[in-house]
Amino acid sequence: MATAARKAPAKSKSDGKSGVSAPKPAEFTKDEELTAYRHMLLIRRFEEKAGQLYGMGFIGGFCHLYIGQEAVVTGMKMALIQGDQMITAYRDHGHMLAMELSPRGVMAELTGRRGGLSRGKGGSMHMFSKEKHFYGGHGIVGAQVSLGTGLAFANRYRDNNNVSLTYFGDGAANQGQVYESFNMASLWKLPVIYIIENNRYAMGTSVSRSSAETDFSHRGASFKIPGIQVDGMDVRAVKAAGDLATEWCRAGNGPLILEMQTYRYRGHSMSDPAKYRSKEEVQKMRSEHDPIEQVKARLIEKKWATEDELKTIDKEVRDVVADAAEFAQNDAEPDPSELWTDIVL
Amino acid sequence: MPIEILMPALSPTMEEGNLSKWLKNEGDKVVAGDVIAEIETDKATMEVEAVDEGTLAKIVVPAGTEGVKVNAVIAVLAVDGEDVDKAGEGIGEEPAKAETAAPAPAAAKSEVAAPVAAASKTEIAADPDIPAGTEMVSTTVREALRDAMAEEMRRDGDVFVMGEEVAEYQGAYKITQGLLQEFGPRRVVDTPITEHGFAGVGVGAAMAGLKPIVEFMTFNFAMQAIDQIINSAAKTLYMSGGQMGAPIVFRGPNGAAARVAAQHSQCYAAWYSHIPGLKVVMPYTAADAKGLLKAAIRDPNPVIFLENEILYGQSFDVPKLDDFVLPIGKARIHKTGKDVTIVSFGIGMTYAVKAEAELRGMGIDAEIIDLRTIRPLDLDTIIASVKKTNRLIVVEEGYPQSSVGDHIANQVSQRAFDFLDAPVITIAGKDVPMPYAANLEKLALPNVGEVIEAVKAVTYR
Q1: Helix (H, G, I), strand (E, B), or coil: what is residue B258?
Q2: Contact residues on chain B for A154, CB-CB shorter than 8 A
Q3: How far apart are CA A178 and CA A172, in angstroms?
Q4: CATH 3.30.1050.10 fits B332-458, yes or no
Q5: Chain B: nearest CA to A255, how far in angstroms?
Q6: CATH class label, A24-202+211-325
Q7: Which of 3.40.50.2300, 3.40.50.970, 3.60.20.10, 3.30.2170.10 is the CATH number of B136-319?
Q8: Beta strand pairing call for B65-69 and B16-22
Q9: Contact yes or no for A135 and B105 at CB 8 A
Q10: Where is the stretch described as Disordered (chain A) (predicted)?
Q11: Which residues 64-93 of A have a C-beta within 8 angstroms of B?
Q12: ipTM of this model?
């Protein structure tokens, strides 16, 4: 698994006092495997299509693809209950799809059309859905960590049993406000899971070149926040960690850190040639640790699905993505009057 | 249908590139995600991945071709069951010159967006009438602010206050005195010294629907938090297409206090007034402080509420009413007059008021307008006054360049140029960091004499 390729994973990756340690990967039922397969495949195909539309000039500006990291949002989503919130930075399409935001709405936002989730005014990095409890979509590295802590503050204020899933990358983990937030979250026992998606590169800078402590599960030590390292390429491991973390938070124990060891196959954004890592490294991850292939192999091995049945799922997913792309290319641009709306209420 | 593979754009600005290498040959099977070619842009060499599954039927643009336009067909993919030999027929006769199919957005209208005048213009109500016989109570600005928060916290359980020393210490400047005792630690929250962090926590709580009042011990410290105020609080409503905003008040003392030198003496009125998505309030009197803070707490937008330490202890009459709320965005004519208009706000009003008294002795009848709100700016009231007096002075303590006064002078020259009998004079703090020494500090701030001289200049006395 991913972690094995790096260093020994999670022995007891906690502060030693909390008793929190990495759980075993969840035992998935057939339904869970199929659900995970379908959800991850949707993200993969959606992102490939987004990359293609970017190439065709339909999508402008920055576009950060989530390909390779699908298991992280998919496994975490499987651990949530109604009302739990999610917030992340700008590599956010996968999170939105995981939170069941409409593929048409997301894709049309990428193309800057009126049917986009933000009516064409947010773009790839800025989408939200109050209804689905998705709080963005933020373009400033690390800002979402304080905001996500604020969501947890609101949960505690309302005493509503919900948990804030606050995602950030290994790069954002070096921002100051992350630690300001850790301190308050621990001090006030806020129900927030800090999910550090360690995909090994902050744009072009590897974690070893940017971080004095590269074990991100330890980053909460000064604030008494326990953390565990999770194989973020294995959706079952993510789900098990998500179950543990949500229970921990709902029990009133305060925040928890999950370091998801993952990998992005594509560059930082569409215009990044990713020359800072070897082709072999990327190829090794793709061929040995791909989150979707892992599920597929298990489904076949356990005879829970035939190749043909999986192809049917592939086809269904492709149709959803094709429909979203079709809509996003043909929908009208926002009316010029939209320039002046939604500035203040 | 065979699938055309197009020359991709690989950066926000790319229009063409060189097809340096094919990594797949005609007849090769490809699956989504396979790297099929390498493209060289002006910045880098990038890989092209297949999006679809099939067989590479035809390479239209050979390796080594330079200047291939974005969206030109570079290859053809035959999908399952298609005749590979026929798939490429008739495609790419003029490969590299193939027309760039720049995506034509469905509603690409050439018309220029509505001009500035079309900006959302909401009618702002006038101040509420104060019934005859209403008792007026002499109140300090400090008490008025505290009363406003307490009343709103009683009225709405979603309102809470957070900041450094707001609870147990009773407020660094005693603005939150008594709130902890009445509302308890759940709603009166002491934070660590961590402006960036707690501003973000406040905005997050506001996005989730609570109504935080975030106190900065002074607005100088809010520079640590300005990213959250501007990028998160002010812009989210727009970026979400109206779905999600931040009903939050950021308040605290702003501007120069006394003898605290450069890092603690700065006015942020002009800074925040620059930002669409924010409202900026800066009251002078206790009544305005109370009525506008109540309005700010109820406002669904992020509001910057700029107070002043020197004004905290000053007393003004406040009407004794159950629910005294004033409109944000409406200036108040502090004193009517006919010879010259003096516009100011916040502590700047102290210079205007003193100057007016002296001017009266000289036979000059000045009109004083207290802006109260800097954004949205009540230009209508200013212009109506200028049309009457034909002369305008603006007084503020902030730095002179790109000041609030500069903006007003510009707007008045555009909208009431023919009514001006003299240039607009803007009086601001001097263009220097605030010095510590008492005499230098005095020189750095505006003074009453400057206001009087300016009025004499524009009235040609």
Answers
A1: coil
A2: 204-205, 208-210
A3: 8
A4: no
A5: 14
A6: alpha beta
A7: 3.40.50.970
A8: antiparallel
A9: no
A10: 1-27
A11: 67, 85, 87
A12: 0.91
